[in-house]
Amino acid sequence: MRLQRVLEPEVMDSEQEAGDYDAIDNREVNEQFCADVLAVAPAPRRALDVGTGTALIPIALCRRAAGVHVVAIDMADSMLALARRNVERAGLASRIELARRDAKDTGYPRGFDLALSNSIVHHIPEPLETLREMVRVVESGGVVFVRDLARPPSDADVLRLVEMHAEVPDGVPAPERNVYLRQRALFEASLRAALTVEEVNELIRELPFSSVDLRMTSDRHWTLVGRVR
């Protein structure tokens, strides 16, 4: 029987969770994410980053796209506190606006030409609400770009991916080792909470896209690129 989805908390809002998340070295992953976004939306003016975490993707995007202003939202105060620090350190406070908003009901009017999200969908019990909201705020002709984990078909596949991508280095001292172990547990929980490509495909059937591309883009990620009608 195919592995069933097991939900994890929608909001990661403890200082430890935010710190562990911020400590993960995702520089290469974030750079690739931004490169892929700009390949389909080459000159965004106003972007909405949904579930920004500690704002590392908006920072990377602003460094690559000189003309973009990013509104970056999250529901976790601890994440946003670290996001403010990161944005200020990067010298991008004038181009990245941080706000505590619900991904399912942002309250923003239509007016973005790009809505993006990296790894928020698996946190949402009913992801269609978030996807529909991302489409709602994007102008006609604009792009919705979503990347997230894909739920593996079996427990064995989950454990294989955890071993491959969340290995705890040998010889790491106890305090740092504990961080690795928490990150490892978080990755496993996220895989189990993720959607399959087939499930995402069912969700987006009712969204007003003029064109859509949904596919697996790594051994553990799917990517959705939709152009709003």
TrEMBL record:
<keyword id="KW-0489">Methyltransferase</keyword>
<protein>
    <submittedName>
        <fullName>Class I SAM-dependent methyltransferase</fullName>
    </submittedName>
</protein>
<keyword id="KW-0808">Transferase</keyword>
<dbReference type="InterPro" id="IPR029063">
    <property type="entry name" value="SAM-dependent_MTases_sf"/>
</dbReference>
<dbReference type="Pfam" id="PF08241">
    <property type="entry name" value="Methyltransf_11"/>
</dbReference>
<dbReference type="GO" id="GO:0008168">
    <property type="term" value="F:methyltransferase activity"/>
</dbReference>
<dbReference type="InterPro" id="IPR013216">
    <property type="entry name" value="Methyltransf_11"/>
</dbReference>
<feature type="domain" description="Methyltransferase type 11">
    <location>
        <begin position="48"/>
        <end position="145"/>
    </location>
</feature>
<dbReference type="GO" id="GO:0032259">
    <property type="term" value="P:methylation"/>
</dbReference>
